[in-house]
Amino acid sequence: MLDDKLLEDAREALGTQTIRETVEIALRQATRRKRLEELRQSLGTWDIDMTLEELLKSRAES
């Protein structure tokens, strides 16, 4: 059984009209979040030898 209050909160947050639409969008968002997290982890981290000001300037020039 679904939690009616949770479902209503999700429906309002997502702007959906039906239970099916609400659940489908929520599931899509959950799987997308998972894929993005996996991608982020696969990219790892690296050091940038720039100050914040240099980075912002570089982005503005791009």
Give the total of beta strands.
0
Count of individual domains: 1
Estimate percent helicity.
Answer: over 70%
> Radius of gyration in whole Å, from Cα?
20 Å
- Indicate the proportion of strand residues: under 5%
- How would you sum up the major sheet? none
Cα end-to-end separation: 52 Å
Shape: elongated
Structural class label: mainly alpha
Compressed to H and E, one letter per element, the order equals HHH
What's the average pLDDT? Answer: 94
Descriptive report:
With 62 residues, the protein is mostly helical. It has one domain (1-45). Helices cover 74% and strands 0% of the residues. It contains 3 helices and no strands. The chain has helices at 4-14, 19-43, 52-61. Helix 1 (4-14) crosses helix 2 (19-43). The longest helix is centred in the middle third of the chain and has 25 residues, at 19-43. The protein is elongated and about 55 Å long. The N and C termini lie far apart (52 Å). The relative contact order is 0.07. The mean pLDDT is 94.
